[in-house]
Amino acid sequence: MASSHVGYIPRALSSVRFHAGQATNRHRTEEIDRFERDRLQDTLRTLAIYPLLHWRVKCALRFAQLRRNRLCVKKKRQPPVSAPEGGPDPLIPPDSLHSVGSHGSAEYVAVGEEFFRYFIDLCELKPDDRVLDVGSGTGRMARPLTRYLKGGSYEGIDIVARSVQWCQRTYASRYPNFRFHFADIYNKVYNPDGKHQASEYRLPFETSSFDFVFLTSVFTHMLPQDMEHYLSEVVRVLKPSNRCLITYFLINAAAWKLINEGASYHSFKYELPGCRTEFGDTPEAVVAYDESTVRGLYAKYRLNITEPVLYGTWCKRKDGLSWQDMIIATKPADCV
Fold first, then answer.
1. Distance between CA 65 and CA 59 in Å, rounded?
2. Using CA atoms, how far apart are residues 277 and 213, in angstroms rounded to an integer?
3. What does the alpha-carbon distance between residue 257 and residue 316 come to, in Å, rounded to a whole number?
4. How far apart are CA 96 and CA 33, in angstroms?
């Protein structure tokens, strides 16, 4: 009987993804066909020997719902940011501060809330987890986490001093379990006077000390040697059996097709050893990596990728989830 279930599981996974894609293309908000979902879940309950596959199916179902919700949000105008009683939201930075990828307070809030759902629904973040945000900026991801990390803690680290200083002043008295650190690392675009090289920098945290580590719009501004070293540091500070989420611009056959057709927002026409960039004079401004290269690095540092990779819409991919591509991965239990 188990063998028949084994044969059914790949078809079930395929069916889930098919229904998810169909629902998304039609911009429907209803759930995936209930009969198919219930049949799949009944099967999985009988297969305790397939916990990893069970997780993959759950992830596919959550991804389908998040993607449909994301499409619905895109169809609507962003509402104005609502101010709490007593005045403006103190966790929204002034426009004069550096804030990667946000144009105005409404988008700043929307992107933070978007990733907050990914952290919980796709990465299973818990309220008592210890979290590390590498590239914390002006607290775009920290802001929604203040509502959730009641028994846990948050550490943010960034290379832009003014952003870190603002976060330290803003969060210290309100949320003492949220701490921000300045890393004086050289980056041609974001910290041209930095004293240290990213390829030699050691994160100021103990080994295996975080339940969840994430980097959003960080490796999209780092060259290969620096990116690989940071990835090794992520593995070092992440606890065994726990997850990380990292965003990229990933080049693969589908992305190249859209780029060559002129559909993509980025062309990545400049080729450097190990990566491609959008601008020749400031390569760190926008950096893309071949997907096979990134997969090879994850294998090298023993990070197990949760399939499928969650591709973004930067190249005008019709079924993208967010803007950049996302990889969620787990550090093995025996990796210390």
1. 10
2. 26
3. 11
4. 48
**Residue 7: burial class (beta carbons within 10 Å; 0-12, 13-18, 19+):** exposed
User: Domain range spanning residue 36?
Assistant: 1-76
Closest by CA to 284, choosing from 192, 183, 162, is: 192
Tell me: do 105 and 71 sit in the same domain. Answer: no
Q: How far is CA 323 from CA 98, 185, 225, 246, in A?
A: 19, 26, 24, 13
pLDDT of residue 18: 42
Quick: pLDDT tens for 50-99. 344 444 444 555 555 555 545 444 434 334 444 445 568 999 998 888 55
Which residue type sits at 266?
Answer: H
Q: The domain spanning residue 326 has which CATH number?
A: 3.40.50.150
Q: Output phi, psi for 20, to 5 deg.
A: -60, -45
DSSP conformational letter for 102 = -
Q: pLDDT tens-digit profile of 174-232?
A: 999 999 999 999 998 889 999 999 999 999 999 999 999 999 999 999 999 999 999 99
Residue 113, judged by CB atoms within 10 A of its CB (0-12, 13-18, 19+), counts as: middle
Residue 231: per-residue pLDDT: 98
Which two three-digit tokens encode residue 228? 């690989």
Comparison of pLDDT for 312 and 76, the residue scoring more: 312
DSSP letter, residue 86: T
Query: Can you give the pTM of this predicted structure?
Result: 0.77
Residue 12 makes CB contacts below 8 A (sequence gap 6+) with 36, 39, 40, 43, 57
* 84 falls within a domain: no
